[in-house]
What we know:
This protein is an alpha/beta fold. It has a domain at about 5-85 and about 165-240: 3-Layer(aba) Sandwich (Rossmann fold). It has 12 helices and 12 strands. The strands form 2 sheets. An 8-stranded mixed β-sheet has the order 6-7-8-3-9-10-12-11, sandwiched between helices. α4 crosses α5. The structure holds iron/sulfur cluster and magnesium ion. Magnesium ion (MG) binds near residues 48 and 174.
Amino acid sequence: SNNILEVKNLKKHFKTPKGMLHAVDDVSFFIKEGETLGLVGESGCGKSTTGRAILRLLEPTSGEVNFEGKNIVDFNGAQMREARKNMQIIFQDPYASLNPRMNLGQIIAEPLLINKVYKDRQKVTERVKELMDTVGLTPRLLNAFPHELDGGRRQRVGVARALALNPKFIVQDEPVSALDVSIQAQILNLMQDIQEELGLTYLFISHDLSVVKHVSDRIAVMYLGKVVELSDYNAIFRNPLHPYTQALLSAIPVPRVDAPDDMIILEGDVPSPVNPPEGCRFYGRCRYRQDICKSKTPELREYEPERFVACHLVEELQK
Length: 319
Ligand code: SF4
Ligand code: MG
């Protein structure tokens, strides 16, 4: 298959004083080589936890993460260190993820040194300069410290670091949410240029559908620990199948003079992901709910070729 990543029945549960938190609850999806899959949902829906569990920065509770056909959840430490070279992450807050006591040269060189990529120190410096060039940072900044840079440049440093070991796959967790709007597009464009140049595959995590829309080939929508819809970008925007996706889409702020009649207001309680009940997680907020939705958990299933949705009533709603 041309799927670089296949996630199957992934779960990440946390013990809390109130009970078991089902942060990621039986999530399955795949990412095709060279594409960007957007993972979108409200804050707390489990999308960041999913991104970290895929890289085993958080150990999955159960499930499979097949990267290039191998389940990395079974990998031992040495195998995982090897696999990590191909699987990197870019975080939301570049400042928090950069060591303030190291200069840019040291920060970008660190993964090369830890993994002993070059014997020759001069080669390391050459590679660092090459990486800085790739992400649009002038080599004059080699000795600068993170606090001397604006948010956009700091995120470029995070990108350079993530690229150092020539990965094939990068998780981007809200990469532009902490940046000024004026800088967001620059970083998004940079990531797309780099993707084309290097043939990378991305998982792009964001709460902001308007940002996801810009960069994604396909989109996975998450709600309270579950993927509720997974589809081609065009299909999702033209005809969202899941009632939650419909609500999410209708709430995209678009400039308009009149009141938004077609905005679906979500009502009802958001259930807690701690000890979640059986049935559809969206039940309390869904305007189409029926009895079956309360008693039976809808599975993600292929409704049409390449269109996956987890809703009992999708056939009826599409009539
Ligand atoms: Fe709504 Fe039922 Fe579909 Fe859940 S399964 S989204 S409650 S119609
Ligand atoms: Mg998050």
